[in-house]
Design brief:
Helix content is about 35%, strand content about 0%. It is built from 13 helices and 2 strands. Strands 1-2 form a two-stranded antiparallel sheet. The protein is globular and about 65 Å long. It has about 350 residues and is mainly alpha-helical.
Length: about 350
């Protein structure tokens, strides 16, 4: 009888252990989806071979904040893309590990999932995963080799296991590094500004903000100056306040151009001085402005657009405004700045989903 009881207990224990061993830890599910709150945005543009997962985004966030990606282990992606500044930098040109400044102003990293035409100011990276590896190798930025990055991550105590959780393998390579970084950057969403609340009917705009909204979305019309707008939405329209084009916005005439922009990538003279049109969301936080950081305030930006400079590749949308410009009054300029500040997403700046894991 005693042996029979022991046998039954053994069988019961074995069954329990078998059932427990078959259970999967949800935290280790490589295909457990990471759900982003797109709000009223259209469906995001996420590559089918790199859909967001909880562990993939977690790994990407670790890499984004880890200084091990730089040659000196003193600089991370987050060093130049800080959450409190809408994942931007406050410097005109970010400084790399060799104390050398970059050539262009850092770009914001949010709503990347809605980008549809390459990355960087000149579009030299076709995919976000391609973009993610370039600063690592740039001698003005992180100045490291991809081979060294792989070696350091492979030798670490935690990264091989995290790659296993995210991608099902402990063998680290540059493609998986780039795909993890791509996942985290695609997870960063900004769509909770005062203007979003206004569209949802949850708040009202001030008199200045409403005047600025009218000017922003109304086309320029020289024949009816009393109702003419600033026509900002032509370039900064849609849910993300951009158009994914490359344009010459009249900050230089032909003689003054020192950075040929998109032309360097396409070798097309018609692309001279054209740069990526960026989102105006969180623009209050992302000074200085333009590809070269030449404007330090929104007021200076509005002054520029009030009367742009003509050149051979100036976008046609600006030509109708010449030679006199938009003729905005001081009150109009103030109102436009007030409206632009309604695009600030304060929740983005403290969202724990995007904070450093270290």
């Amino acid at each position: 009888m005693k042996n029979k009881k022991l046998f039954i207990l053994f069988c019961f224990t074995s069954i329990v252990l078998l059932i427990h061993s078959c259970k999967k830890d949800p935290k280790e599910e490589p295909d457990a989806p990471y759900i982003i709150d797109i709000g009223v945005f259209p469906p995001p543009n996420i590559a089918s071979d790199n859909l967001l997962t909880r562990e993939g985004v977690k790994l990407g966030k670790m890499l984004f904040y880890d200084k091990i990606l730089s040659r000196t282990s003193t600089q991370a992606c987050a060093s130049c893309h800080m959450q409190q500044f809408a994942f931007n930098d406050t410097s005109k040109f970010s400084t790399g590990v060799n104390d050398l400044p970059g050539n262009r102003n850092a770009m914001s990293v949010f709503n990347m999932a809605w980008n549809t035409n390459q990355f960087f100011w000149d579009g030299r990276a076709n995919l976000l995963r391609h973009q993610s590896l370039m600063p690592i190798q740039d001698n003005l930025e992180m100045d490291e080799t991809l081979a060294n990055v792989v070696s350091k991550l492979q030798a670490s105590s935690n990264y091989p296991d995290q790659f296993r959780r995210a991608f099902g393998t402990t063998q680290i390579d540059t493609l998986l590094i780039s795909k993890a970084l791509e996942q985290f950057m695609n997870s960063i969403v900004s769509n909770q500004s005062k203007y979003d609340d206004y569209l949802a009917g949850n708040t009202t705009l001030t008199t200045d903000e409403e005047r600025g909204r009218y000017l922003f979305f109304t086309e320029y019309n020289a024949g009816f100056p009393a109702t003419s707008g600033a026509d900002c939405q032509h370039c900064h329209g849609g849910a993300n306040f951009e158009n994914d084009n490359y344009m010459n916005n009249g900050i230089d005439d032909d003689i003054s151009v020192t950075d040929i922009g998109r032309q360097k990538v396409t070798s097309n003279i018609n692309d001279k001085a054209k740069f990526k049109v960026v989102s105006l969301r969180n623009v209050e936080l992302t000074a200085p402005y333009m590809h070269d950081g030449r404007f330090s305030t929104l007021e200076q930006v509005v002054d520029h657009y009030n009367l742009v400079k003509n050149s051979s590749t100036l976008d046609a949308s600006f030509l109708q405004q010449l030679p006199n410009g938009l003729l905005l009054s001081s009150a109009d300029k103030k109102a436009l700045v007030a409206f632009l500040k309604t695009l600030t997403d304060q929740k983005l700046l403290t969202n724990p989903e995007y904070k450093s894991p270290f």
